[in-house]
Amino acid sequence: MLSILGTIFIGLIVGFIARAVKPGDDKLGWIMTAVLGIAGSFLANFVGQSLGWYKAGATAGFLASVVGAVILLVIYGFVKSKSGGSGSDGPAA
Known about the structure:
- The structure is a single chain.
- The chain has three helices and no strands.
- It has helices at about 1-20, 30-50, 60-80.
């Protein structure tokens, strides 16, 4: 149980750092920020193992997790802008 809570806490810290590093206003709450940090760690771990940087069973480091979370934020920004999330309801008259 403590391992899960520790993972969520570290994910929250990683998510906050990633949101601070990436410019722009990403409107994410506390829970989504923690999910972002945890997902960034999983992304960094997957890419690192795929490229041979980490052995099977090894985990990504803190900085790699932050980089993974920033990459996910950039992807989220692209998807949000493509889906019309700019806040405008149509062309201005």
